Amino acid sequence: MVEDASGSEWPGDHAPSVDLRTDVPHSARMYDFYLGGKDNFAADREAAAKVLEIFPDVAPGARANRRFLGRAVRFAAGLGIRQYVDIGTGIPAAGNTHEAAQSVAPESRIVYVDNDPIVLTHARALLSSTPEGRTAYLDADFRDHGRILSAPETAELIDFTQPVALLTVALLHFVPDGDDPGGVLERYKAVMPPRSVMIFSHATTDLVDDSDESQAVVRAYSGAGVGLTPRSRDRVTEFFTGWDLLDPGVVPVTDWRPDGNPDDAALKASQAGAFGGVAIKPA
Ligand SMILES: C[S@@+](CC[C@H](N)C(=O)[O-])C[C@H]1O[C@@H](n2cnc3c(N)ncnc32)[C@H](O)[C@@H]1O
């Protein structure tokens, strides 16, 4: 174990050279904590504990979101999609996008994108592709669509004449209205060819009866310096205007094409806390 500049302990004999600001909570590391991961620090755990106190279902909700990601990616693979741009990848956990996609089609190619330096330090785990497929990692911000779409890694792995899957799973609630997430998303939608799909999930307050509780969760995040913008079903649906929502539409993540997992069946919609769905660009 060694200590970095902020006093956080790291396994092994050296701390990473990027400044991870381990003294400040990060959304990726809070999510990792909810999922039971080990890539989080005291500041993340403290912030996550405050959220859990108000809304204990955030942890099973995060796991349900992760299972949704797996089902939706395997579904896209079943539609014949072989190339994915996964923005807001998160710290690697069980069932990463390339593992789900390549379990159906080993030749699948994935460009991972995240703006959190801790995810960058784990990029190697995301690059463990099958020999037939490829993965790449970009340290970039969703809002920087020009850079993401024109990056050499994207050019090498993604053929924009063939259908692509764009993933924004548990991402857009971290992009405030002032940054025009819908307008940015349109830039990605515009370059994707017909029969491309968007796989998305998004935190919502629609599913929770007690709006005080949801407001308290938003305050707990913003108190920790992490902006969270849950949106209504209508607002989430608006992001996909012009594309066809595939059945069953924008639904609690647990209700999106469930595969019989008992943990999903046991979770009420209000506990999932997020909508999910898949939309396809018309031919
Ligand atoms: C809740 S995690 C979701 C991880 C994964 N997509 C999943 O659903 O299991 C959200 C991720 O989005 C990333 N993120 C937040 N805002 C971002 C932005 N503007 N650009 C790129 N990544 C962002 C965070 O760093 C974090 O890793």
Question: Overview of this structure, please?
Answer:
- The protein is α/β, with parallel strands linked by helices and 283 residues long.
- The protein has a single domain, classed as Rossmann fold, CATH 3.40.50.150.
- It has 13 helices and ten strands.
- The chain has helices at 27-34, 42-54, 58-78, 97-104, 117-121, 123-126, 145-150, 152-157, 181-191, 211-223, 233-238, 262-266, 269-272, and strands spanning 2-3, 9-10, 83-87, 109-114, 134-139, 165-169, 197-203, 244-245, 251-252, 274-280.
- The strands form two sheets. Strands 3, 4, 5, 6, 7, 8, 9 and 10 form an eight-stranded mixed beta sheet that branches. It has a two-stranded antiparallel ribbon with strand order 1-2.
- Strand 1 (2-3) and strand 2 (9-10) form a beta hairpin.
- Helix 1 packs across helix 2.
- The protein is globular, with a radius of gyration of 18 Å.
- Mean pLDDT is 91; it is low at 4-8 and 10-14.
- S-adenosylmethionine is lined by residues 27-28, 31, 65-66, 69, 87-90, 114-116, 119, 141-143, 169-171, 174-175.
